[in-house]
Amino acid sequence: MEKTPKALWGDCLHLIRENVTEQQYKTWFASIVFEKYDEEKQTLLIQVPSRYVYEYLEQYYVTLLSKVLCRCFGKNVQLNYRIVVDKAHKLTVEEEGSEPVNIERPQETTRGNKAPTTLDAAVPQDLNPQLDIHKTFQTFIEGDSNKLPRTVGLTIAEHPGKSTFNPFFVFGPSGCGKTHLINAIGVRCKEMYPQKRVLYVSARLFQVQFADATRQNTVNDFIHFYQTIDVLIVDDIQEWATAPRTLDTFFHIFNHLFRNGKQIILASDRPPVDLQGMKDRLLTRFACGLIAELEKPNVQLCVDILHAKCRRDGLKIPEDVIQFIAETANGSVRDLEGVVNSLMAYSIVYNSNVDMRLAERVIKRAVKVDNKPLTVDDILERVCDHYNVSQQNVFSKSRKRDYVIVRQVSMYLAQKYTKMPASRIGQLIGGRDHSTVIHSCSAIEQRLKVDKSFSSELSSIENSFKIKKK
């Protein structure tokens, strides 16, 4: 039975989900609504929740959209958008997407149901380097944690295979920017030397390709293909630790490239000495060039990265929110970008300003940390539960004693356990001004000095936070 256009769009979303992170999918694709497909005109109309989402898709995901549309609907499908400009009044406008990219369907007769790979390149000049063109040196912000790797990477990009930095082995924890840096090297090298065969490949994809070649008895062709590369960039090589046959094959590829002056760039989440399961003959080759560590970015570098992203994407995020994100994003560039994308998506969908309260809510959902900092919402929720008072009553103008004490305790604990100024705390707790917060904190401090019962009660609330007192 032939699939309906709506079902084909469902297939498109499934393919997209396999090629982006879960956070990216939820932010930019999950809210898309299929409207109609005109088979005669070969046009597909989808609805997006805002102009910002439309512009972002067109800027960053147009190639991916073209590929999945080609796979599911056929060649030359024109993607059009219906943009919601006023949700309250259900007003929309239609915009045409970019011209469809002319992408041929993969030849199912030769590869069955397998995805096309770089091994399918018919002639050398057709090689797709598999680089992310958005990950460049211009967007790789320099700081104390990445200055050496960035400087060395730039030198390699401008003089591939001709420096003592071969191979270039970069390592560091997840989210520190390894993939961005090695992509930037490839992009810069390709800009300066268009004729060079540059290839970025993940260790996992390399392993899958090798397994396919083994089943099809084409291992020699597989090795020959990789021996033609001028700049080989392999990401996440720690995944080969339990794949001895893959390692043996890569050993021969490595030796050939190295002897012929070709540049090799490797990335891992740990240094060579900690890559257990790999033979010494390979580890000594990994270490014979330059080993550089990428550390997690400190708070200042995170702030600089966020400022750069705001300038690049035309975003407006308050300075206190930027500082808060930088301090709580666990030193991960990936988390920083995920939080900002989520902030903008929430702001657009719910038509709200990007402020500290929204940032706190997004951080709770987007960032996994062991010792997550308390937020004003956390404190309010716990104090209201303790006194059995609703937040709506706390935010009201009522001077009822029960509401006032909850208000004052919440302000006192917020000042104690968060880094927010009194003015911000007041805004988040019923829209009070900073003088109210200062008065509340003073009142609680005075009461603690003379009321042992109240002091014990407050300690009970603090213990429920499962954090130590400052």
Q: Short summary of the structure?
A:
It contains 21 helices and 9 strands. It has about 475 residues and is an alpha/beta fold. A 5-stranded parallel beta sheet has the order 6-7-8-5-9, sandwiched between helices. Strands 1-2-3-4 form a 4-stranded mixed beta sheet.
How does this model look, in words?
The chain has 470 residues and is of the alpha/beta class. The chain contains 21 helices and 9 strands. The strands form 2 sheets. A 5-stranded parallel beta sheet has the order 6-7-8-5-9, sandwiched between helices. Strands 1-2-3-4 form a 4-stranded mixed beta sheet. The chain starts with a helix and ends in a 6-residue tail after the last helix. The model is unreliable at 102-125 (pLDDT under 50).
Topology:
Blueprint: H1 5-19, H2 22-28, E1 33-38, E2 43-48, H3 51-60, H4 62-72, E3 78-86, E4 91-96, H5 108-111, H6 147-158, E5 168-171, H7 178-192, E6 198-202, H8 203-215, H9 219-227, E7 231-235, H10 244-259, E8 263-268, H11 280-286, E9 290-293, H12 299-313, H13 319-328, H14 333-349, H15 356-366, H16 376-387, H17 391-395, H18 401-417, H19 422-428, H20 434-450, H21 452-464
Parallel strand pairs: 2-3, 5-8, 5-9, 6-7, 7-8
Antiparallel strand pairs: 1-2, 3-4
